[in-house]
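The protein record quoted in full:
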Amino acid sequence: MIASTDNDLTHLHANVCQALADPKRIQILYALADGPYHVNSLAHDLNIPQPTVSRHLRILRQQSLVATEREGVGVIYRLTDQRIIQVLDTLRLLMVEAIARKTAVLNGNHRA
């Protein structure tokens, strides 16, 4: 039973990571960290075509990273959990540090 749960969790983890693997989806998540957005406003603010934003939001919604709420004739998108931004920020920090280590090695500092 535990192995099945671990496999399910690993599968979900991989799906969320796959959803985070696109730069536009990361931009969308950071924008939604500031508050809920209507898809057209999000497309305008990020300078991404609305159909592209809608497609990315669908993927994020399928992985439960964003949720929808009907507002009149429109749909508002919001993050389901702000902690995803902490996850993204942590990943960015790891990448910055990895770049610094690679740069140090390229500059002859092999202790990096």
Summary: Strands lie at 37-38, 66-71, 74-79. Residues 27 and 46 are 8 Å apart (CA to CA).
